[in-house]
């Protein structure tokens, strides 16, 4: 199944690829954004595509094979992008794209356990070589700990009630069973959003340590960007977007001292400019074509 990358035109326009440039797609997925970057940076621009999903690496390698040695695809977390760049002998890169969260292709593979609409195991791992699965959390973690991640990572207001129900219904063996238990606890949700969305989101984020990864990758990304290079990030929920927004705001300021501090003592200097203060969102047309794009938020920073 072919999927148009979210905010595709906006990503290419904001990243401004050019011939001889070097770029990183830290969440290469099926290679949609990467293909556009390579096309725009022809004839000799290069791209390093990273993904921890083995299947995604295979798909992206196939998608980008026509670009030959210009496309370098590796199975690696984007948190390791600095090491990958060093191993290639690249000193700096001219642009980085991070499309955070879950891809449509992952969602539609029932055996991966990401979808509440498809019968599947409670897996939810991006990297299937990792040990922690959603099954371990749902069936073995204590109630208070489950409630905590549902509230903090899913922003689920009925987290304690759902956590109690999950513990009472153990063993929980499938995604559909999990979704039904949540639905029995929660009768209302936003129009067009399944009542189990926040629970599945929280479990997926916990399994894949997504928040820690975002926090760790942001300073590394800025470190390996060349002056004038751009960091483009697509977030799909407010938790991710707030992290990116706060980091961009902090690193675009010359001083981080409290307002009452007359003389700067922190020594902080701005290393980026924020290209957009408000996130770019999908058009109504894109949302109609790809319903999952409706929550996407695009932020761009440029290295000074």
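Sequence proposed for the structure above (304 residues):
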């Amino acid at each position: 199944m072919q999927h148009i990358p979210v905010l595709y035109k906006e990503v290419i326009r904001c990243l401004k690829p050019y011939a001889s440039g070097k770029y990183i797609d830290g969440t290469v997925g099926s290679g949609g954004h990467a293909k556009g970057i390579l096309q725009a940076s022809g004839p000799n621009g290069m791209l390093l595509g990273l993904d921890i999903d083995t299947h995604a690496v295979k798909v992206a390698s196939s998608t980008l094979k026509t670009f030959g040695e210009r496309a370098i695809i590796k199975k690696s977390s984007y948190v390791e992008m600095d090491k990958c760049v060093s191993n290639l002998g690249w000193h700096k890169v001219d642009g980085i794209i991070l499309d955070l969260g879950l891809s449509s292709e992952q969602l539609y593979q029932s055996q991966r356990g990401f979808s509440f609409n498809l019968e599947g195991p409670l897996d939810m791992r991006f990297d299937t070589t990792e040990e922690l699965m959603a099954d371990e959390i749902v069936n073995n973690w204590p109630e208070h700990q489950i409630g905590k991640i549902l509230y903090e990572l899913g922003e689920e207001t009925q987290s304690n009630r759902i956590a109690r129900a999950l513990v009472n219904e153990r063993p929980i063996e499938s995604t559909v069973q999990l979704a039904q238990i949540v639905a029995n606890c929660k009768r209302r949700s936003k129009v067009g959003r399944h009542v189990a969305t926040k629970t599945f989101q929280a479990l997926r984020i916990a399994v894949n340590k997504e928040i820690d990864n975002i926090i760790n990758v942001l300073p590394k990304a800025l470190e390996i960007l060349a002056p004038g290079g751009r960091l483009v990030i697509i977030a799909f929920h407010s938790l991710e977007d707030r992290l990116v927004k706060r980091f961009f705001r902090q690193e675009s300021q010359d001083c981080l001292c409290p307002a009452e501090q007359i003389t700067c003592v922190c020594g902080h200097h701005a290393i980026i400019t924020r290209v957009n203060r408000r996130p770019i969102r999908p058009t109504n047309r894109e949302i109609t074509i790809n319903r999952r794009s409706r929550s996407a938020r695009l932020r761009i920073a440029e290295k000074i």
